Amino acid sequence: MLELSRLMLESGWIPPRPVIFLFNGAEELFLLGSHGFMKTHKWSSTVGAFINIEASGSGGADLVCQSGPGSWPSRIYAQTAKYPMANSVAQDMFGIIPGDTDYRIFAEDVAKIPGLDIIFVLGGYFYHTSYDTLENLLPGSIQARGENLFNLVKAFTNSPMLLKESERSNKAVNEGIDDLRAIFFDYLTWFMIFYPRDVSLIIHSLPVAIFLLTPLFLSFPNITMISLFRTVLDLARGNVASCIWCHPCNSRSCYDCRP
């Protein structure tokens, strides 16, 4: 965080929103540091989003192990992280692990602040031992984390979803709470694949429907496996082609934009 603050000062970039660097301790003692900040500090009610930096090892690629409430923090990460490593399944698995982070205080127990929980996951055999030293820090880990964080801080501070506690409460009353998690995962830390939960219900239901309906279609005398496969392939190809054309261009259909 010190290096990130230095970079922000020397780069000439002026954040459109204030950025708080919270150096808190007592995390291992039931998250007392973050709890004290949220309960006693006058700035706690002004926090619109957070990025919690954690480690369960001595380096490696950053893993987004928790995200929320809502889907916009993970969406911003998918759009801006230079070396993305994230998987929505990690959040489901995190509850099984006998560990905890300050994310729980910020996003769940004390407040409902949207944010990310980012951890180092490699070199866990050094973690919490006398061998957890700078010499055993995996090369390139801090550099990659810094570049990701700088992009994230710039994107978070420019996001229209960044709201104070009172603004989030009013929005929840008027528009309802956006508490739906998205589905996201990276491919070899090259890029991210991200889609909302309602879209995932359709995408993930298709293989099940095909599996259940294939025996029914094959029971007809004039239908073979090849013809059925071609039908499904043509349907999928048309849907993929429309997505490739519409979404990157952010275009709208003619009957929407020219009523």
From TrEMBL:
Pfam (any one): Peptidase_M28
GO terms (BP aspect): proteolysis
Keyword annotations of the record: Endoplasmic reticulum, Glycoprotein, Hydrolase, Membrane, Metal-binding, Metalloprotease, Protease, Transmembrane, Transmembrane helix, Zinc
Location in or out of the cell: Endoplasmic reticulum membrane
Cofactor(s) this protein cannot do without: Zn(2+)
Record's keyword annotation contains Glycosyltransferase: no
Main location: endoplasmic reticulum
Sequence intervals crossing the membrane: 201-220
Domain Peptidase M28: 1-152
GO molecular function, one term: metalloexopeptidase activity
Family the UniProt entry places it in: Belongs to the peptidase M28 family.
Protein name per the record: Peptidase M28 domain-containing protein
